[in-house]
């Protein structure tokens, strides 16, 4: 499997695009956890992920905690803790940012 990018802090669309162009290969999945899940509702972030066809995941517990689980776009997979562990375990490398 490819590298897994673990995003834990809120990120703006411009920051995501900039980081993506420098550090992420198009088929490397992004996993949004903690504060970063709210970024998925920010105009531009979800649109960029969909436009670039980036495999994207959000930790469902963090989405539920913030009351936004029903607002996360359907093309972003909401996963539980066990699925997150599986993603991390199967990744070539986990890169946190």
From TrEMBL:
Recorded superkingdom: Bacteria
GO biological process, one term: tRNA wobble position uridine thiolation
Gene3D superfamilies, alphabetized: DsrEFH-like
InterPro entries linked: DsrEFH-like, Sulphur_relay_TusB/DsrH
GO CC terms in record: cytoplasm
UniProt protein name: Sulfurtransferase complex subunit TusB
Organism, scientific name: Aliikangiella coralliicola
């Amino acid at each position: 499997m490819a590298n897994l990018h673990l995003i834990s802090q809120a990120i703006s669309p411009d920051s995501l695009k900039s980081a993506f162009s420098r550090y992420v290969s198009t088929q490397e999945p992004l996993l949004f956890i903690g504060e970063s899940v709210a970024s998925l509702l920010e105009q531009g972030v979800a649109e960029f992920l969909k436009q670039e066809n980036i495999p994207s995941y959000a930790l469902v517990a963090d989405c539920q905690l913030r009351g936004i689980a029903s607002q996360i776009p359907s093309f972003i997979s909401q996963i539980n803790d066990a699925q997150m562990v599986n993603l991390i375990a199967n990744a070539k490398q986990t890169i946190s940012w």
